[in-house]
TrEMBL record:
Protein name stated in the entry: Coproporphyrinogen III oxidase
Top EC class for this record: oxidoreductase
First and last residue of the signal peptide: none
PANTHER family recorded: PROTOPORPHYRINOGEN OXIDASE (PTHR42923:SF3)
InterPro entries named among the record's database cross-references: Amino_oxidase, FAD/NAD-bd_sf, Protoporphyrinogen_oxidase, Zeta_carotene_desat/Oxidored
Annotated source species: Paludisphaera mucosa
Catalysed reaction equations from the record: coproporphyrinogen III + 3 O2 = coproporphyrin III + 3 H2O2
Amine oxidase domain sequence ranges: 24-481
Protein task: Involved in coproporphyrin-dependent heme b biosynthesis. Catalyzes the oxidation of coproporphyrinogen III to coproporphyrin III.
Length: 494
């Protein structure tokens, strides 16, 4: 081809794997392949191409004036082992910190006021009924309907059910509107009316199928293990969340530092990928450098970005990738002096039901949730704007976003005066929406991608949006890459 190509694959006695994307998925893929390569006779060269000037993707931590600002996720859940395992392999054990147990609760907005999520109410399952019945969040009618969940038969018949339809059917409309929708929306930045229950929270479908209902299943599980952490926490299961002492940005940074020197190439956006003229490998064309030949390519970017790169080679696969919808959101880190906030901030944060018609959908009190996030006497709050339910808010300019945040926090927690700090992070089309039919769509994408030898897809678009799920999928993909090359005879096992 006319484009200058850097090194024919295998010409230096090694195989080359090009990983597109230097976020957590891409770095985890590269790390796993290099670890596997140490036990193989033939070396594997891994190249990670990242379009931005830093690694980590949406995970980033900034330090400013004594504040620790998380521009993306601020923690990860521990009941899935893959993130904890990775931290241990990277010798980050001593940095792991648990959420402060002092105020282990969250709030939900009810008529402009913050009310505590009932203790033991986990996303959709009430593990304890007394706190629900005494909560001001639901009316008497809503509480009675929730109690009737134990009498609702399991759903029969074919067809996929949305998360919203499931919650309304089992718990009633009010419990969905006032509890389930804001709690789930805060996790997926999505609209539960469109989200697939099977693809997002299949454990609740299993609870219905195995035990006949959510209350029955929750009681049985609590009886079997009274010490389960999730039965003692509320809402988003904050008791199972951990972070890193230096912020979540330390995770991708440590992962990148563990790779062989020269593995990661930042400021290296990819134009397209295509088959090599020899037909035995791939050519990865860059926007600002020579093309790379590779024995295998792993795309870890958003599905729509992968579609753009593969479009010229397989337009049908690109079309399927583009069909995965994404939501955009804004995270605003804002700090106040504590005496400028009327609310006592005696919890980890709050979520906002869509029926409240407000312009933010959640906020996290980061200085309460984790230690050493803000100077003494100050409050650091992360505010979430936009998402799938209010996509128009993402288009607001920075001044308008500042006004929205000031107005909403003023009304909801009594924040007054100019903030000590306000930092806006925009995440355009970064959160995939697992809508109805998602699992079937991913299966079809995987079948089509498998028709192209040594082309692999992984990332949050397919198998889970949480950090542990992201790591699990990336490492499984890396294992598949090594196995494929070995089966093809490119790698001779030691």
């Amino acid at each position: 081809m006319k484009t200058m190509i850097e090194r024919a694959s295998g010409s230096k006695g090694s195989d080359r794997v090009v990983v597109i994307g230097g976020g957590l998925s891409g770095l985890a893929v590269a790390s796993r392949i290099q670890q596997s390569g140490q036990a193989l006779r033939r070396p594997v060269e891994v190249v990670v191409l990242e379009s931005k000037d830093r690694v980590g993707g949406v995970i980033a931590t900034d330090h400013r004036d004594g504040f620790m600002l998380e521009r993306g996720p601020d923690s990860f859940i521990t009941n899935k082992p893959w993130a904890m395992d990775l931290c241990r392999r990277l010798n980050l054990d001593d940095q792991l910190i648990e959420a402060d147990p002092t105020y282990r609760r969250s709030f939900v907005v009810r008529k402009g006021k913050l009310a505590a999520v009932p203790e033991g109410f986990v996303l959709m399952a009430p593990h304890r009924l007394a706190p629900v019945l005494s909560s001001p969040i639901l009316s008497l009618r809503g509480k009675l309907r929730l109690l009737a969940e134990a009498l609702i038969p399991r759903r029969e018949g074919p067809g996929e059910e949305s998360l919203a339809a499931f919650a309304r059917r089992r718990l009633g409309r009010e419990a969905f509107d006032r509890l389930v929708q804001p709690l789930v929306g805060g996790i997926y930045t999505g609209d539960p009316n469109n989200l697939s229950l099977r693809a997002t929270l299949p454990q609740f479908l299993a609870m219905e199928n195995e035990h006949g209902g959510l209350i029955r299943a929750a009681w049985r599980r609590r009886k079997e293990s009274d010490a389960r952490i999730e039965t003692e926490s509320s809402g988003a299961r904050y008791g199972m969340f951990v972070s890193l002492a230096e912020g979540m940005g330390a995770l991708p940074q440590a992962l990148a530092a563990s790779l062989d020197a020269g593995t990661v190439k930042t400021n290296s956006p990819v134009r397209r990928i295509s088959r090599s003229s020899t037909g035995s490998g791939w050519v990865v064309e860059l926007l600002n450098g020579p093309a790379l030949e590779a024995d295998a390519v792993v795309a870890t970017t958003e599905a729509h970005a992968a579609a753009r790169m593969i479009d010229g080679h397989d337009a049908s696969l690109a079309l399927q990738l583009r069909a995965i919808p994404y939501a955009s959101s804004i995270i605003v880190n804002v700090a106040y002096r504590c005496d400028r906030v009327k609310h006592t901030l005696d919890g980890y944060g709050f979520v906002v039901p869509a029926v409240e018609n407000r312009r933010i959908f959640a906020a996290s009190f980061l200085n309460v949730k984790f230690p050493r996030r803000a100077p003494e006497g100050t409050a650091l709050i992360r505010v979430f704007v936009g998402g799938a339910s209010q996509p128009e808010l993402f288009d607001l300019d920075d001044d308008a976003v500042r006004q929205v945040v000031a107005a909403e926090l003023g009304e909801l927690i009594g924040a007054t005066g100019p903030p000590l700090l306000l930092e806006i992070a925009r995440h355009a089309r970064t959160m995939p929406q697992y809508v109805l039919g998602h699992l079937e769509a991913v299966e079809s994408i995987r079948r089509k991608a498998a028709m192209h030898s040594n082309l692999f897809l992984t990332g949050v678009a397919y198998d889970g949006v949480g950090i542990p799920d992201c790591i699990r999928a990336a490492e499984a993909t890396a294992d598949a890459v090594v196995a494929r090359l070995a089966a093809a005879g490119s790698i001779a096992a030691a």
